[in-house]
Amino acid sequence: MTAAEAPARAGTAVSVDDLSEMYRRMRRIRRFEQHASDLYKKTEIPGFLHLSIGQEATAVGACWHLDERDGITSTHRGHGHCLAKGLDTASMFAELMGKETGTCRGRGGSMHIADPSLGIYGANGIVGAGLPIAVGAATAAQLRETGGVVVAFFGDGAVAQGMFHEAVNLAAVWDLPVVFFCENNHYAEFSPAAAQHRAPLSARAAGYGIGYEHVDGNDVVAVADLMAGVIAGRRTGGGPVLVEAETYRWHGHYEGDPERYRTADEVTGAKERDPLLVARTALAAAGVPGSGPDALGAPDAIDAIDAIDAEIETEIADAIASARAASEPAPQTLTDYVTAPRADVPEPAEASGEVFRTMDAVRTALDHELATDPDVFVAGIDVAAGGGVFALTRGLADAYPGRVRDTPISETAIVGTAVGSAMAGMRPVVELMYFDFIGVCLDQLLNQAAKLGFMTGGAARMPLVLRTQFGAGKSSGSQHSQSLEALLAHIPGLTVVMPSTPADTYGLLRAAIRDPNPVVFVENRLTYGRKGPRPPEDHLVPLGKAKIVRPGSDVTIVSYSRMLTECLAAAEALAADGVDAEVIDLRTVVPWDRETVLASLARTHRLVVAHEGVQDFGVGAEIAATAAGEGFWHLDAPVVRVAPPAMPAPYAPSLEREWLPDRETVAAAVRRVCAG
Fold first, then answer.
1. Mean pLDDT score of the chain, rounded to an integer?
2. What residues does the Transketolase-like pyrimidine-binding domain cover (predicted)?
3. Is 480 a catalytic residue?
4. Which residue of 162, 225, 297, 445 sits 20 to 30 Å from the alpha carbon of 428, by its own alpha carbon?
5. In CATH terms, is domain 42-86+107-285 a member of 3.30.565.10?
């Protein structure tokens, strides 16, 4: 054994060469962060900046045994994690400066650096949000059986988040290869840990039935030694584990933080356990070969360590120069990466097969995609053993073992699993039992699924489908009847699909699963028993394309989902009165087909929009505004919206009938428009 291969200190598996490399990586993080602080003060870095100075050993030690199979999720204080996993300093400085050569093409910034090609599934500006995403990435690793492991970094403050509970619990239930790695720096923003929690992490881990490990987070060798066994255990099916590394952040919560919540003496005392000093002392004690012999011909350890420092200084200086010289994103690229380009899908021929139901269409579409694409999996509450609350997925779990999965009642973890597994290359289809529950998991849609493609400059793939259902008219009450598509329509990056027929349900769901963008697929439960002709197996319906389901010349009626049936019935009743209504099924609410609607308006000169979502600020308002702005000269009458009043859905049948529009309401509105 050579001196370089010998352990750096007794009782460790880390050689002198390894410790030298660990020091180099920690020094890279330290100097990156210190220079970032200086650049921020010079206003060369815009926005917010959260630095990890003092926490270098946790990042390097936790990532030391990871390879190309493995992934990490990070936090708003994530520069060190990304560097430790292999990102280069030049693209990271460029990202912090908002340059086109940045890791995320200047779209993410300090809190949102990601590179899925390196298994870096994103730093995150939402506290705790990376934990459900890590569960998704670990699910992908488990399904692919590669031995991959995911390390989910989080701070002690994130333990108070519901996302922490949901993610750890789901990982435990599924025995996922994920390490929940807490960098306990003893402060959640400005609050000490003692003011935030009453139970230690060791007790929490026991409550979830998973392993717990504690380590000195300022000693990179100790962290790496611990993680050697932890990572090896996850590779062989050991299930999740929670690691707590105690460390300290030297700077405030953010650059500019006045730090009135702690004393200067406390910070000075913490610096006595500087992770770099701990490693440097160990290297010097080990007699690391230097850059040249001293007067006695013995190795000069300090010179060798200084040589590493000098190497890093050159690297950082070159990286900053490169970033400064890079161009900012061009204004004409403003809308790039909001959505991924989707393949052109031609409008299919009308279905003409045997009669089947909408509920059959859902199951058949899922079955087809599971059978033809091994990257597809289905997850949700009771979707496997029970087949879902409406039995739509019954039998699929037996047909596709491990790929149709029951989850706990944890909507945030469910959607976060979809986000993380999609970033890792899967095509998840997850179910939200009721549309009304969208608020429970909105962050994972609003700030993760919808934005990560854009914020990573297109690097993050997001081919996921969130299936859900709604349906007023059966006294389901205010919390189980809501049509909330307008809420999602205001979130750039999401596609929202609401089919009305069995054939379209089949073709649109298959198209959604194959699409590179996050799709919310909303079914109306009152249509599950609706019958129609079965389309051929290869039937696909283009997303974002409306369909004229009844040509007409006097007025255009636009609708979608179950309300379309009411509009068609109204159109037939109006025909008896000599009013020829053209009925358009949007099918996709976002992006909606402006061209088809405006072209119809140009022919009929009148427009009525009907939907089950409440009227105020709804989809009809957007269509009406577009008609008034882009189709004004075609209008012979005001645009009329038919929708429920802006109030919760009533429970009593008499009130619900008054609240919910029907074919008579639509027909009455059309008569008013045509009489004007």
1. 93
2. 356-530
3. yes
4. 162
5. no
